[in-house]
Design brief:
Oligomer: single chain
Distance between the termini: 13 Å
Shape: globular
Radius of gyration: 16 Å
Strand order of the largest sheet: 2-3-1-4-5
Bound molecules: cytidine-5'-diphosphate
Helix content: 40-55%
Number of strands: 5
Amino acid sequence: MKMTVAVDGPAAAGKGTLSKALAAHFGFAHLDTGLLYRAVGAGVLAGGDPIKVAQTLEPAALDNPALRTQAVAEAASQIAVIAEVRQALVDFQRDFAARDGGAVLDGRDIGTVICPDATVKLFVTASAETRAERRYLELVNAGQAADRAAILQEVRARDDRDANRATAPLRPAVDSVTLDTSDLTADQARARAIAIISERMPQG
Ligand code: CDP
């Protein structure tokens, strides 16, 4: 049977780090679905039409390191409210999830919309302050300019937009397990998540 792990949660909750570690542990493939929205956001910043960019997106566009900037994150959050953009990205995500050998997908609506039948659904969260601090350190470590207060404000604005949009709003799937990482190190979060997934794996 196909094994799909859905990892959803708000901005900078640690989904990416956790999902990568889970994929490595279980030998699954990993898709950071935020990159799809970031690639569309980057295309729009370059003057493209969001729906056209989404409909013609090539997988190679996901490898661009420029997708990691705050400007692109903000643009991604804005185009992510457009129903036609989200629709255009569904097949790519579902095909990825259905691959043999298992897959971990992280995003906002994986357990609710993209893979409602996922084998395991995690909702990874942390306080806005913790998430803003993590994002700040991530940017500083990457050599980018960063302002703590501005990042906290941006995290809150994105939370608000993600949670309140009409199409595929961010919310835990009813059958998801919530993992609050506010007081956990990355290693502790990884250990908890592995335990949750192992418990729910078919044939034990
Ligand atoms: O890494 P971070 O959590 O800051 O952002 P991301 O996961 O790369 O996603 C960037 C933006 O894309 C988010 O603010 C969401 O608005 C949007 N997104 C979405 O709507 N649905 C997804 N499955 C993934 C991302």
